[in-house]
Specification:
112 residues; alpha+beta; 4 helices; 36% helix; 13% strand
Length: 112
């Protein structure tokens, strides 16, 4: 989750989209209503990546939506051929460490 107060929405938009796809995670960006581009993004194809997104406006607004972390973890744990078949999300990046996902699913510590 990133909280910002920045008018350079194009720059931060690129960072958020790259982060979501490269780390394969949900990302939440919160900007002021003055500048806009607050959203929840997931590692999916371009047409589906933004779960919710707003440009901004004169009034401050609270927008709420839901993310399904369990569904993302289950997808990340699948082998490449199954990820390619189901297409719920973008395919995980090369050398994506599935051991970490297993630990997250089981609630284990990631680092000793």
């Amino acid at each position: 989750m990133a909280i910002e107060w920045n008018r350079d929405v194009n720059y931060y938009s690129n960072i958020l989209e790259s982060l979501s796809r490269d780390i394969h995670c949900y990302c939440i960006q919160v900007n002021s209503s003055e500048y806009g581009d607050s959203r929840i993004t997931q590692p999916s194809k371009t047409e589906e990546k933004d779960i919710i997104r707003t440009k901004g406006g004169k009034n401050s607004t609270i927008l709420i939506d839901e993310i399904d972390i369990e569904r993302l973890r289950e997808f990340q744990f699948k082998e490449y051929s199954l990820q390619k078949k189901y297409k719920d999300f973008k395919i995980t990046p090369p050398e994506f460490n599935k051991n970490i996902i297993g630990k997250k699913i089981r609630g284990e510590a990631l680092f000793d």
